[in-house]
Specification:
Elements (H helix, E strand, L loop, with lengths): L5 H12 L19 H6 L8 E3 L2 E3 L2 H12 L10 H30 L8 H17 L12 H16 L8 H13 L3 H19 L5 E8 L16 E8 L13 E4 L5 E9 L4 E6 L17 H5 L19
Antiparallel strand pairs: 1-2, 3-4, 5-6, 6-7
């Protein structure tokens, strides 16, 4: 695996959560570690992580963590029985790869790879939309209902990297913040298996990200005033200093408080709070989606049963398409 890869972090966390012994081999992706003959013999797609168990080779992070639980510790993390619950967990895993990880990658990888120093606002808005959905998913306390599954590990790895990059104000996503704080405490060895690598990635991103910096550009405009008298001839040079400020990261902060109500049909109804009066009191305002107006329930932490009935048929792209994973 790679310390820079959030997908690797999810497998590390699963191994420790299941208390399994393993040997970790660091792959230097930036230096072409995924293109060596030894690595290509394991994974010709040139991506990390790769899980090797005897003669079995698994090259997808979601497949790796589902295998580990199924093979070594069948539990509610990924139930051995119950196709319904497993399909819901699978949906969340696919959402993490196909939506969340991809939208985050669209924002941060071009910066990390030196292709740009700023982030397109449309990509930021797409990521915000994704976070809005995740905020709804975590209304019950976890990514799916009220207990931890392997989907929480997958989301935690992506979320930790996004948090370390510090490109968005995450405070409006109340449910997500509560879930994130809980998972950091609940997952064993989180700091070594995820947080340190996420911080390393965040530093890599920030080294190239100029949106929160101000640069000074000196433009020298020269004006010469010549007199007709050679003896009194003088040249005056005026230097104009122009300050150029790129977009601040705070410009990407959202003023919306993304709290939601959950209906039995699994639809999403965000609740925005608008100030009323002079004392800062707030009144929930329901925002209908798809033309259907729902009654808002502020601060609701229920809705697990409703969320369980959601169908999120999201197909994950090949991991080889993610910039960090393919050199």
């Amino acid at each position: 695996g790679s310390s820079l890869s959030s997908l690797s972090h999810s497998v590390h966390m699963a191994l420790d959560l299941l208390n399994l012994k393993y040997t970790y081999i660091e792959v230097n992706v930036q230096e072409g570690g995924t293109r060596t003959p030894d690595f290509l013999s394991l994974n010709p797609h040139q991506s990390v992580p790769v899980l090797v168990d005897s003669n079995l080779i698994i090259t997808e992070s979601s497949a790796a963590i589902t295998y580990l639980v199924s093979q070594y510790s069948p539990s509610n993390l990924y139930p051995e029985c119950g196709a319904t619950k497993r399909s819901q967990i699978d949906q969340r895993l696919q959402f993490n790869i196909g939506k969340f990880y991809k939208k985050m990658g669209d924002c941060v990888y071009p910066v990390c790879l030196g292709k740009t120093v700023n982030i397109d606002s449309k990509k930021i808005e797409a990521l915000k939309e994704c976070l809005m959905w995740i905020n709804q998913m975590t209304v019950g306390g976890y990514v799916l209902d009220s207990s931890m599954t392997i989907a929480d590990l997958a989301f935690l790895s992506t979320m930790s990297t996004l948090e370390a990059c510090n490109v968005l104000d995450l405070s409006p996503y109340k449910n997500l913040q509560v879930w994130l704080d809980r998972m950091k405490k609940q997952v064993p060895n989180y700091e070594n298996n995820c947080q340190k690598g996420a911080a390393e990635f965040g530093n890599w991103f920030q080294e190239n990200y100029k949106a929160n910096k101000t640069r000074v550009v000196e433009r020298k405009d020269v004006y010469k005033e010549d007199t007709e008298n050679d003896e009194g001839k003088s040249d005056e040079t005026y230097i104009v200093t122009e300050t150029v400020s790129n977009i601040s990261s705070s410009d990407y902060a959202s003023s919306t408080d993304y709290t939601f109500s959950a209906s039995d049909d699994g639809s999403y109804t965000p609740v925005r709070y608008t100030p009323v009066g002079d004392h800062g009191s707030y009144t929930p305002v329901s925002i209908p989606l798809d033309g259907v107006d729902k009654e808002p329930v502020a601060g609701q932490r229920k809705g697990g049963a409703a969320l369980a009935r959601q169908t999120m048929m999201i197909v994950a792209p090949a991991l080889g398409s993610i910039p960090l994973l393919k050199q």
